[in-house]
Amino acid sequence: MVETTQVVNEGTSKELSDQEVFNQGLLDFIDASPTPFHATQTMAQQLLAAGFVELLEGEQWALENGKKYFVTRNFSSLIAFVYSPDLFVNEGIRMMGAHTDSPCLRVKPNPEKTAQGYFQLGVEVYGGALLSTWFDRDLSLAGRVNYLDKQQQLRSSLVNFKDPIAVIPSLAIHLNREANEANNINKQKHLPPILMQVKDKKNIDFKDWLHAQLELQGETDVAKVMDYELSFYDTQPSAIIGLQKEFIAASRLDNLLSCYVGLQSLINADSDKPALLICTDHEEVGSASACGAQGPMLEHCLQRMIPDTEQRLRAIDRSLMISVDNAHGIHPNYADKHDENHGPLLNKGAVIKINSNQRYATNSETSSFFRQLCDSNNVTPQVFVTRSDMGCGSTIGPITASEVGVKTIDVGVPTFAMHSIRELAGTQDAFDLSRVLTSFFQQ
Fold first, then answer.
1. Per the domain annotation, does 394 fall within a domain?
2. What pTM does this model have?
3. Domains held by the chain: number
């Protein structure tokens, strides 16, 4: 029997299934999280509402048995965990990992540009963005701004313009007759978004705009904007689409979908079993940062959770990390881009990702465990192996396995248009994976 929730809206009521409630929560999470900073803030708010206690890395931790905690780093990475020290050594820790960042266009430090009477901002491509999809979109701007307050103290705040304020217009087909055959995009020349028209080439200071935006958001103590990390994003809301409402269309599905699945699974597990969720930044550019998977954040947290080295190593030996990052669904128009026996379908189950060259961390032991976990939840897993004559992307899985020494499996939800400004996934898959991971955290 499918459980339902009654939703009342303006005098009408509708019975929503658990899956529909889950997917609506996913859409809301993505729309509230245009940057890794916002994603981390949104996750922190949900964890606090679920009874987790926030820890600060710069303070002493006084952990109590049975309590649930979370900690952030750089305001863009997060670890949440269930603290059960009596069970660490004998049972290990059930770990799940994802990443908070997505390919995008980042504003340069000195971005102001004026050409032909149009004001633009210079941008740098972050990660492996599918650049053609960024044209002709209603773009806004969000991220972190650091400033001096009126007491000359350094502070930071998140900003989100929300409204569409920019666009990157395509060049008309009449002026580029080969556009449909060879779409050669110059990252320096062709990507600066247009924000407005200007009458003359007078100096415009972008930081003055940020100052005004901070005040608009209620930050009344700003004396001087010092620096920022800002990204453009598509303002089109996430949506459930398709004749049978079987698809999720949204920005940043890679990999906010996985963050949300992990977050909800940990919260819904409501268990005292040792469990840990880690969502790190900078995966799309290699994870080599203080708050990335190749950095020491997870190791530092484990050291504070289990200070004794002998006990910590014994616990890690009994632990398992499930690295969750989206998988390539087989595209009906490009089916030859997949190995014919390993083409995952949307809405047909979570994907086990395998690569013999260790681009994914899955081995036969960890995949067998995940298959058993899926079987117990009536979910049929799929398998992805890239074509032998094509390269393969990677995830935080191999990095975490090599840095921490924990047994790891790479899995994900099948997706179309990965690294596009708007990706596509199935409405069934994320919900089913959340059920599997919830049971994992409860074991």
1. yes
2. 0.94
3. 2
Rounded to whole angstroms, how far apart are CA atoms 378 and 258? 20
92 and 138 housed in the same domain = no
Q: What is the CATH number of the domain that holds 189?
A: 2.30.250.10
Each residue's pLDDT, cut to its tens digit, for the chain (443 residues) gives 345 555 444 444 567 899 999 999 999 999 999 999 999 999 999 999 999 999 999 999 999 999 999 999 999 999 999 999 999 999 999 999 999 999 999 999 999 999 999 999 999 999 999 999 999 999 999 999 999 999 999 999 999 999 999 999 999 999 988 888 887 899 999 999 999 999 876 788 999 999 999 999 999 999 999 999 999 999 999 999 999 999 999 999 999 999 999 999 999 998 899 999 999 999 999 999 999 999 999 999 999 999 999 999 999 999 999 999 999 999 999 999 999 999 999 999 999 999 999 999 999 999 999 999 999 999 999 999 999 999 888 899 999 999 999 999 999 999 999 999 999 999 999 999 999 999 999 98
Q: Which amino acid is at 434?
A: S
Q: What range defines the domain where residue 339 resides?
A: 4-102+251-442
Radius of gyration of the chain (CA): 23
Question: Does residue 243 belong to any structural domain of this protein?
Answer: no
Question: Domain ends where: 234, 264, 281?
Answer: 234
User: Is 167 in contact with 134 (CB distance < 8 Å)?
Assistant: no
In degrees rounded to 5, what are phi and psi of residue 145?
Answer: -125, 130
Same domain, 63 and 118: no
Dihedral class, residue 63 (left if φ above 0, else alpha if ψ from -120 to 50, else beta): beta
Reading the block at residue 247, the tokens are: 């698809």
Q: Do both 357 and 268 map to the same domain?
A: yes
Of 209, 234, 259, the position where a domain reaches its end is: 234
- Cβ-in-10-Å burial (0-12, 13-18, 19+) of 83 comes to buried
Kindly state whether residues 48 and 84 are assigned to the same domain.
yes
Beta 53-55 vs 12-17: how paired, if at all? unpaired
